[in-house]
TrEMBL record:
Lineage of source species: Bacteria, Bacillati, Bacillota, Bacilli, Bacillales
Primary gene name: mtnB
Single GO term (MF): zinc ion binding
Binding of Zn(2+), residues: H107, H109
Origin species: Fontibacillus phaseoli
Family per record: Belongs to the aldolase class II family. MtnB subfamily.
Name of the protein in its database record: Methylthioribulose-1-phosphate dehydratase
Length: 220
């Protein structure tokens, strides 16, 4: 589908959904400084042709303004005339859309995701097991254990983008960049938001568990 064939109602609906979720995440402190970027796919999808709205680069996400999102194509190139600059990380979003076919991708930096990505960085994944919110990632096994991939945080974003297809775990809707933050996705904005909230809860539990001494049953 051509970008011009996507209705202006659909484009406006995407912007309004992104603005509302941006305000929600900003209120939680999930966009420190000018970090983070959210994106939402619009129109139809084929791995070689799709469009998405993405946050403009270098903006304070906690200040609502209308110079905040632009529409880009499969290659991360703007589809309309604009003064706004897409983030260099648009390449990561484009690659995740291409590989997963998802509908929304949310990237945030938090203390918990940053610390755990560094703590488990050498082993390439953050392990999580038996935490109820793993189910909210769509994983309902009895032995609900997952490995959340950690990729190196190269300055050259194209090097990160190249690693994505080989690192994603189909059942885990997220990846961490080491000492940087998380990308979480879903079939639409609501599912991506739910997944991101679940990941952040899991990271906080894991981090706090590392600080606790062994419980009574484990002392022997
Ligand atoms: C300025 S700190 C964060 C950036 O380096 C980047 O990782 C980020 O999340 C936001 O980049 P941006 O280009 O503004 O979308
Ligand atoms: Zn970032």
């Amino acid at each position: 589908m051509n970008f011009s064939a996507i209705s202006s109602e659909d484009k406006q609906a995407a912007l309004s959904e992104l603005r509302s979720i941006t305000a929600d995440f900003a209120a939680r402190g999930w966009f420190p400084g000018t970090s983070g970027n959210l994106s939402l796919r619009v129109g139809g999808f084929s791995p070689d042709r799709f469009h998405f709205a993405i946050a403009a680069s270098g903006k304070d996400r906690s200040i609502g303004n209308h110079e905040d999102f632009l529409f880009v194509d499969t290659n991360g190139e703007p589809c309309e005339t604009t003064n706004l600059k897409p983030s260099p990380e648009t390449m990561i979003h484009a690659k995740i859309y291409r590989v997963t076919g998802c509908g929304a991708i949310f990237h945030v930096h938090t203390v918990y995701n940053t610390m755990l990505s560094e703590y488990y960085g050498d082993q390439g994944a953050v392990p999580a097991k038996g935490i109820e919110l793993i189910k909210d990632l769509g994983i309902w096994e009895d032995d609900d254990s997952i490995q959340i991939p950690v990729l190196p945080n190269y300055r050259d974003i194209s090097k990160i983008a190249k690693l994505i297809s080989g690192s994603l775990k189909p059942e885990v809707p997220g990846i961490l960049l080491r000492n940087h933050g998380i990308y979480a996705w879903g079939k639409n904005a609501l599912e991506a938001k739910r997944h991101l909230e679940s990941f952040e809860f899991i990271f906080e539990v894991l981090y706090r568990s590392l600080l606790l001494p062994p419980g009574p049953a484990k002392k022997g």
